[in-house]
Amino acid sequence: MQAAALRSAPHPDATWSSPVRALWYEAHGDWHRAHDELQDDADQQSAWVHAYLHRVEGDRANAAYWYRRAGRPLPAPQHPFADEWHDIATALLQQ
User: To the nearest 5 percent, what fractions of the chain are helix, strand and coil?
Assistant: First the structure.
């Protein structure tokens, strides 16, 4: 699957990982459900999506914590959310 297909899927698939489901929920306007998908996950992929969600929320301090947990740099404030969503989705879907 590609990032565009993930974004356009009519509903999340039960076989998707929780970080992928979280990206789907965020893309469909349900930030809280996206965040809930990751609450119990400690892996780096989940931390990356968690970081992105807090950046979208506007909580850069919390986002910075999660980017460190993910082993990823905190993007510049002007980095477009849509570009980061696509980058994360592409990376997760290639695994």
Answer: 65, 0, 35
Residue with tokens 């965020």: 26
Buried b / exposed e over 50-86, threshold 16 CB at 10 Å, is bbbbbbbeeeeeebebbbebbebebbeeeeeeeebbb
Q: In angstroms, rounded to a whole number, what is the distance separating the alpha carbons of residues 85 and 89?
A: 6
Contact 26, 56 (CB under 8 A): yes
The model scores a pTM over 0.85:
yes
Question: Tens digit of pLDDT for each residue in 55-94?
Answer: 999 999 999 999 999 999 999 999 999 999 999 999 999 9
Domain map of the chain by residue range? 27-93
